[in-house]
Amino acid sequence: MIIDGRTRTCGVIGNPVEHTMSPAIHNTLAEAMGENLVYVPFHVSEGSVAEAVKGAYALNLLGCNVTVPYKSQVIPHLKELDQLAEQIGAVNTLVRTEGGFKGYNTDMPGLYRAMCEDDVRIEGEKVLILGAGGVARAVAMLLVQKDAEEILILNRTLERAERIAEEVNGFAGHKIVKALALDAYKSLPGGERCLVIQATSQGMFPNVNDVIIEDPDFYRKVHTGYDLVFNPARTKFMSLVEENGGRAFGGLKMLLYQGIIAYELWTGTQVGGELAEKAYLEMLRAMGLLADGIHGLHGGE
To answer: What is the mean predicted confidence (pLDDT) over 236-257?
Structure first.
């Protein structure tokens, strides 16, 4: 692409950002769609979030993604919050508006789009969430919005799971979320299988052999496992799900679609299936995964 005086800039702010895959997604989309736009990473040191947001606006950036550890820290420095971002309490996308940035959360819409792509149903399902951090809270909010029948949060520290359950039940207006200690999976009915969303960092590179639950008896209760970890592309959690007869998916498509939704917010365009496939393959190339047999969105290279 040609960079000139009319080129718009977007980027990602975080710490660290050196290994981000977002430039592969956004620069591929911009080039394919003929947008005069470039996307770059911005390493923001601890304590500098306010200055980063103010500086990004002063420099006329079209928008930014926000990654760890700043998804909540960035909120006080925004002009406005989208309703979903406010409910979740985390922002990963800033969109330029008159007088400041508006904060959005595209992680959960990205997860939902990925799950739809993988033919994973939420409506009417009993869903187990492993973990009780900010991601688990956001997932629980999504599940309520998409009409899950029952949500169980399993966590080593029961009190953290209970806090999330109380918050989400308050949002839902009725008791739909229940908190359980991690080993309570042993008392779950053996005859029914459920959807499980792995919302911890267990198994993330370089600790690829870690998994929050090892017991095969647990995985025999899983009809579909969705791991939000995307590196490695195939986690031990996914392997255990499949070894015990379930379907398993990782976080790569969520990573793709959260980026696509952010791009659509910045540019006012719609990214179709062919372009999504192109961006996905470029992301896989950047991660070195095509050589490992990971294929396109629909199974082909």
So the answer is: 97
E strands present in the chain: 8-14, 37-43, 63-66, 80-81, 93-97, 100-104, 126-130, 150-155, 177-181, 194-198, 222-227, 247-249
Q: Rounded to whole angstroms, what are the CA distances from 230 to 4, 226, 252?
A: 35, 11, 5
Matching residue, tokens 């359950």: 165
Choose the weakest-confidence range: 64-68, 189-193, 207-211: 189-193
pLDDT of residue 295: 61
Kindly list the catalytic residues.
71
Torsion sign (Cα): 63, 68, 69, 73? positive
Q: How far apart are CA 182 and CA 102, in angstroms?
A: 37
Q: Distance between CA atoms of 6 and 60, rounded to whole angstroms?
A: 11
By the 8 A CB rule, do 94 and 78 touch? yes
Per-residue confidence (pLDDT) for residue 1, from 0 to 100: 76
Q: Is the dihedral of CA 261, 266, 272, 277 positive or negative?
A: negative
The residues facing 249 across adjacent strands are 226
Q: What is the pTM of this model?
A: 0.93
Nearest alpha-carbon partner for 79 in 60, 109, 54: 54
Which 8-state DSSP code applies to residue 278? H
What are the angstrom distances between the C-alpha of 168 and each of 34, 62, 114, 177, 217?
A: 42, 33, 23, 7, 29
Residue carrying the six token digits 């990214």: 271
- Can you state the percent helix, strand and coil of the chain, rounding each to 5? 40, 20, 40
Q: Cα(83)–Cα(285) distance, rounded to whole angstroms? A: 35
Distance, in Å, from the CA atom of 12 to the CA atom of 23, rounded to the nearest integer, reads 9
Q: Name the phi and psi angles at 122, rounded to 5.
A: -110, -45
Does the pLDDT at position 245 exceed 60? yes
